[in-house]
Amino acid sequence: MMIDRLAGNAALKDSVRLMLGSRRLTHSVLLVGETGLGAGYAARCVAADYLYPAGGAPAEALLRGECCRAVGKAGDRDSGRIETGVVREAISVTGMGSGGRYLVSQVKAMRTEIFNTSLSAEGRAVLLYHVERMNEESANALLKVMEEPPEGVLFLLTADSLAGVLPTIRSRCISFAVAPVSPEECARWCIGQGVDKKQARLYSELFDGHIGTVLAAARDDARREQVEKALTLAKAAAAHDSYAAAVLLAGYEKDKAAAAALLGDFRAVAAAGLRGCASTPLTGDAARRALSLADAAIQRLAAQVNPKITLSVLAAKLG
């Protein structure tokens, strides 16, 4: 089964196997886990096992995310449409509005598609990523189909946290938590996916077993460079070198999104130091202080405080 490819999470996998084996899988499943833990991957595994019990090329394509997509344009309620993908039986919906917000047009397009399209022998699966980004309007559009779904349709929802999901959606799903694996197991799994051994071990420690985050960092040149800069900033903090910190952070003064992303990785480095990771320059009280300063700077950026001022203050305090 494809669900067996999910690292760790034995209880989740056992429950899915049992429900699929007895054909008692509820029509709406919510998978909850922090970004990078693999909730989306788990959802695709369940969808593949539901649609293609024998596996094969369609199941592999679904795991890669090569399914149809519900798309739309912000401000245009009638712009929703379905882009055809390799896997015709699965539709994915990821918010396309500001901050990843769901558009009503996307949900309406998905709803129309599954009601009007004749079902294949396998059924249909709808993958809705990060449903904590739904507002009441898009949630109400989804509820209209979740309450009385067409025969053979399985809804698979993911969210960063259960508390962030609207109660109207949450109450109609059976929920499972996707847990992190140990850094050692994470590294083994990522090495099996072709990640360099040294990188896999370092990133698995830094990101505390978040497989998706490790893969994203290892496979993207810009993200790898960002992690290296976060480690460099941590070295400056450990040495109380405010000048080195200021020089590095000056390159982010005009790009608030990039600054927040860098500080997110710097925060991960500091948190890893608190866990005793030997690969980080920060440990003990220094790691705790850096973590607190990173959190404060990220909050200021989110509150629209001037990035130049925020980063200058951070550099001074790191020194």
What does this structure look like?
This protein is α/β, with parallel strands linked by helices and 319 residues long. Helix 7 runs antiparallel to helix 8 and helix 11 runs antiparallel to helix 14. The protein has 2 domains: 176 residues, 3-Layer(aba) Sandwich (Rossmann fold); 99 residues. The chain is 52% helix and 14% strand. The protein has a 7-stranded mixed beta sheet with strand order 3-2-4-5-6-1-7, sandwiched between helices. It contains 14 helices and 7 strands. The protein is globular.
Question: What is the element layout, followed by pairings?
Answer:
Elements: H1 10-22, E1 28-32, H2 39-51, H3 57-63, E2 67-73, E3 76-83, E4 87-94, H4 104-116, E5 124-129, H5 136-146, E6 153-159, H6 167-170, E7 174-177, H7 183-192, H8 197-206, H9 211-219, H10 221-238, H11 242-250, H12 256-274, H13 284-302, H14 307-318
Parallel strand pairs: 1-6, 1-7, 2-4, 4-5, 5-6
Antiparallel strand pairs: 2-3
GO molecular function, one term: DNA-directed DNA polymerase activity
Organism: Faecalibacterium prausnitzii
Keywords: Nucleotidyltransferase, Transferase
